[in-house]
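Ticket #4471: structure export looks truncated?
Reporter: QA, pipeline team
Priority: medium

Steps to reproduce: submit the single chain below to the structure queue and open the exported record.
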Amino acid sequence: MTAFEQVEDFLTFSSLISICIATSLVYWIMSLSSSSKKDTFINDPKAFLQYQPYEPPATLWSDLKVIKAMWFAKITGTDLQERLDSFYENQADLYDSYRFRMLHGRPKMLQGVARHVSPSTSTDGIVWVDLACGTGANVENFGKSVREGKISRVYLVDLCQPLCKVAKRERGEKYGSNVVKVLHGDVTNFELEGLPPANSVDLVTISYSLVMIPAWEKCIQNAKRLLKPGGVIGVTDFTVAPDQSNLSQKFWKDTFAKDHVFLDAEHLNALKREFEEVEAAHDYGTLPYTPFFLKAAYYHFIGK
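Actual output as written to the record:
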């Protein structure tokens, strides 16, 4: 290769990098300016729970810190907890402000929950268990109902220590540790200390977690064990969809697998087998700082 050709290749590569950076900046500005329009929902005045959008603010600097942690963090550890801790340690505090823009199924699932959860048969409010809760951000979407006592107790369960610390600070301290209880532990462990008794829970949610749990079937069984008759389960996650091309399925499977996230259409099939389906649907959504035409499939499921 001649010196001229080397320079030409370098300039071509530099141009591509510049285009990617410029596209990312435009996407970021557009995403922030339209964030208030993303999660719009009109509550049914007759519904027991009232859903509220939760969209924590982000900056370009905070996003870059998360991207650095996601792309360049060295995932270490011999088991799932150690891998989760190493991956989220440097991004836990910024987790919510970045991820609400890529977890498009969460509002749909929680809005479905708001439509279908009924008041508790007891004099107290309902009991809610959020399995693999992350930072417990789902609580913010029902913050009004928590304050009004319609939700009397929330159990936030997660295996990742850094995310549990955020959940305790942002949810436990905010709403009161007597109402919001954070449990550090494995969501597949039926004997986890602090969990409510079997057949006593009104609502169980699992958000973008089954894809990261090796024994995901046990997580579903634990949810089923906890729910009382007539209780509601809401689940949302990334998936591969039946109307998705083989090439697209392979691309997203390979991309997510690099972060130990494993897409599997069997998750939704299992939920439909284990619970009475109330509503279920799949769709596609973008991820921050990726081209608009790259959309990952996700589903949401409401069952009883």
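Status: closed, not a bug. The export was complete when the record was re-opened. Leaving a note from the reviewer for reference: The radius of gyration is 20 Å.
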